[in-house]
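User: Here's a chain of 142 residues. Predict its fold as tokens.
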Amino acid sequence: MSAPTTTTVSALRVRVDGVVPRQPSELQAADTPLGRARVARGWSQDKVVRALVLLAEHWGWQIASEASLRVYMSDWERGVRRPNETYRVLLSSLYRTTPAELGLTVQRRESAMDELLARVNDLAAVVERLTTALGTVRGASA
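Assistant: Prediction complete.
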């Protein structure tokens, strides 16, 4: 364990026990288009949240509190949650890009719906074949 360090700044004394941590040299974000857009501009999530609040206030829009937006930003960047239309417009304006370039298009949801519909149709076809086969078996045993 390192010896305590004492620093004096304008008559303010601060005692730090242990090694002083290094300041992170670069911003980090999830490897998503939205996360990369933020880091490319050198912005923290807090800066983006403040900018979203200011932009929404300027436009007269109602949005979530800063505390909620911090959680949303993290979820949006990690792909855990998708921003609604209001936030897609705000984020696109803030980053001066399109929702598609930020990975905020609804294509993923539409493709999931298409996949679900295809699976339901496949299941319906199986049920129809089984019903036909069962009818054939019952007709042969009568």
